[in-house]
Automatic annotation (TrEMBL):
<dbReference type="InterPro" id="IPR050155">
    <property type="entry name" value="HAD-like_hydrolase_sf"/>
</dbReference>
<keyword id="KW-0479">Metal-binding</keyword>
<dbReference type="GO" id="GO:0005975">
    <property type="term" value="P:carbohydrate metabolic process"/>
</dbReference>
<dbReference type="GO" id="GO:0006281">
    <property type="term" value="P:DNA repair"/>
</dbReference>
<protein>
    <recommendedName>
        <fullName>Phosphoglycolate phosphatase</fullName>
        <ecNumber>3.1.3.18</ecNumber>
    </recommendedName>
</protein>
<dbReference type="GO" id="GO:0008967">
    <property type="term" value="F:phosphoglycolate phosphatase activity"/>
</dbReference>
<dbReference type="GO" id="GO:0005829">
    <property type="term" value="C:cytosol"/>
</dbReference>
<comment type="pathway">
    <text>Organic acid metabolism; glycolate biosynthesis; glycolate from 2-phosphoglycolate: step 1/1.</text>
</comment>
<dbReference type="InterPro" id="IPR023214">
    <property type="entry name" value="HAD_sf"/>
</dbReference>
<feature type="binding site">
    <location>
        <position position="170"/>
    </location>
    <ligand>
        <name>Mg(2+)</name>
    </ligand>
</feature>
<feature type="binding site">
    <location>
        <position position="13"/>
    </location>
    <ligand>
        <name>Mg(2+)</name>
    </ligand>
</feature>
<dbReference type="InterPro" id="IPR036412">
    <property type="entry name" value="HAD-like_sf"/>
</dbReference>
<comment type="similarity">
    <text>Belongs to the HAD-like hydrolase superfamily. CbbY/CbbZ/Gph/YieH family.</text>
</comment>
<keyword id="KW-0119">Carbohydrate metabolism</keyword>
<comment type="function">
    <text>Specifically catalyzes the dephosphorylation of 2-phosphoglycolate. Is involved in the dissimilation of the intracellular 2-phosphoglycolate formed during the DNA repair of 3'-phosphoglycolate ends, a major class of DNA lesions induced by oxidative stress.</text>
</comment>
<dbReference type="InterPro" id="IPR006439">
    <property type="entry name" value="HAD-SF_hydro_IA"/>
</dbReference>
<dbReference type="GO" id="GO:0046872">
    <property type="term" value="F:metal ion binding"/>
</dbReference>
Amino acid sequence: MTFPFPAVLFDLDGTLVDSASDIAEAVNRMLAELGLPRVPEARILGWIGEGAHQLITSALRDAGSTLDADAVYARFMVHYEACLLLDPRLYDGVVDTLQALRDRGVRMAVCTNKPSRFVPPLLAAMGIDGYFEGVVGGDSLAWRKPDPRPLLHLAAQLDVEPARCLMVGDSETDFAAARAAGMPVVLVSYGYPRSFDLHAAGALAVIDRFGELIGLE
């Protein structure tokens, strides 16, 4: 059985890996260091997906702080690194599906807004680093999602036309980047969509389980 796309680009947090609790802990450690109250993980979920700088900005704004994200960025990165591998978990079906795609000759890459230096150790810890021929993080290039250029960069690296690449993500950021890049997109329903209406977006499909990806026609 063949797969309809020769290449697939994946978002990371909220698509391949459930890292919300670790990201939330990093945010809360930063807030505590600043003398600000911790916030529930559920609230932090709504801030994930647009890169670390925006995550910090959202947390500071929510806390009523007048600090600028640049002022605390370096300290946040210390907490981010310390929390990176506390309790990340692959979503159900990820390994089997990646292996099935590889068996069908599909080429794969990761496009995430996570700071680039944290992506390889997370993929390695999850045991899935060997599946991907390319990785672009939020600071790998001068642009990050929802700008399409990180996706186009990976398509060029894989030597596959953008229209023949499938983007798989969980948020409006992923959807907008894929649409602007001219790529079809599949959205997963279990990630961190914030207020984005996945089902009204017009994606190729919205899947409830990662393994459903292999059944695309």
